[in-house]
Amino acid sequence: MALHVRGVVLPDDEVRDIYLVGDRVTYEPVAGAETISDGGYVLPGLVDAHCHLGIARGPRPITGLDEARAQAAADRDTGVLALRDAGSPYPYPELDDEAGIPRLVRAGRHVAPQRRYLRGVGIEVPAEDVVATVIEQAKAGTGWVKLVGDWIDRTVGDLAPAWDPDTLTAAVRAAHDAGVKAAVHTFSEHAVAVMVRAGVDSVEHGTGLSLDLIDQMARQGTALVPTMINIATFGGIAEQARPKFPGYADHMLALRDRLPEVVRSAWEAGVPIYVGTDAGGGIDHGRVADEMLRMHEVGGIPAAGVLAAASWGGRAWLGFPGLVEGGLADLVVYPEDPRADLRVVRVPGRIVLRGQVIL
Ligand SMILES: [Zn+2]
User: Fold this and answer.
1) Contact present, 173 and 138 (Cβ < 8 Å)
2) Ligand 1 mean position to 337 CA, how many Å?
3) How many Cα atoms sit within 13 Å of 313 on the Cβ side?
4) What CA–CA distance (Å, rounded) separates 111 from 124?
5) Ligand 1 centre and the CA of 294: distance in Å?
């Protein structure tokens, strides 16, 4: 049974008739197709470019596939029809291509420094084991590895790079040699400088980025996923740490406060920016609209730019075709024009994933 959707299709901005045949899009009329939506604005399915299906509130690793399914469903029901899992302590390859689950691009486990990262989440290794671990985790994921570039070092009372610069650089090279992309978690100024120069593919958070590094990212095409709603929670983290680590607390607040400027500068410089909630752990799944609105209202990115980042741009980045002839049958319909008022993305009118009506 084919489905028919008519509306203003973005980004082309033309009224079109879309036919969904199985999991494919066609603009060739299909006789007898059932019209499920007529009117409004039709976008390729949204993308959460940084979240974690394998991490539950705590944060703790999930204990079974149904927990990952439930988190994926919370995302899907807001229009997120593809996601990049930026590190999972619980492998769930069974969900790749499962009906009802957004399309997945997965990193393996976080490759992290020893006794410093979130307990039980990453594979914690000394410098000499980083390259071998990256190669192993490249096989565990589907196209990405996740590196923890910095975290608190309690011996210095502040954020510090996970390993020495040569090891960080070698980790990126090992990922590329293994045929995958490398994403790096960084909060501080130091690790991100090493990683951008090493040619990392995406900077996650990136609160410590300088203007020079932003320019280098634009030249290289290095992506930024700022996870703004997560960074907005730094206040709580800082105040909890303040009695023991006042320098760390002050640093975290300063990094939090400069993120909007980082996002604005990166946008103006032409850095590819994507929408990631960092859901899993501290942030609940299903908050893509909050991140989109924060990028617009606080980060200063125009609504059309946020929509590109969250929809067709994010999909292209992850390798999922949008609403083109032969593309994938994932779409979201909004009753009003989200370019005119981005708050429209809070309430989708229709959601179709893999050719199946979700809403
Ligand atoms: Zn994350």
Assistant:
1) no
2) 31
3) 16
4) 6
5) 17
294, 276 contact by CB (below 8 A):
no
Q: What DSSP string describes 183-196? A: EEEE-SHHHHHHHH
Structure-block tokens of residue 75 = 């995302």
Q: Taking the alpha carbons of 28, 29, 30, 31 in that order, is the dihedral positive or negative?
A: negative
Token output for 177? 């040699």
Beta bridge partners of 44: 331
Whole-number Å distance, alpha carbon 302 to ligand 1 midpoint, is 25
pLDDT in tens, 126-180: 999 999 999 999 999 999 999 999 999 999 999 999 999 999 999 999 999 999 9
- Render pLDDT for 250-296 as a digit per residue (tens, 0 to 9): 999 999 999 999 999 999 999 999 999 999 989 999 999 999 999 99
From the CA of 47, how far away is ligand 1's center (Å)? Answer: 15
Q: Ligand 1 centroid vs 292 CA: distance in angstroms?
A: 17
pLDDT in tens, 24-43: 999 999 999 999 999 999 99
CA of 37 to the centre of ligand 1 (A): 35
CA dist., res. 180 & res. 172, Å (int): 10
Distance CA 90, CA 92 (A): 6
| pTM given for the model | 0.98
Decide if 83 contacts 358 (C-beta within 8 A).
Answer: no
CA of 316 relative to ligand 1 center, distance in Å: 21
Q: Which of 232, 301, 298, 294 is nearest to 273 (CA)?
A: 301
Distance CA 214, CA 216 (A): 5
Cβ atoms 281, 253 nearer than 8 A: no
273 CA distance to ligand 1 centroid (A)?
16
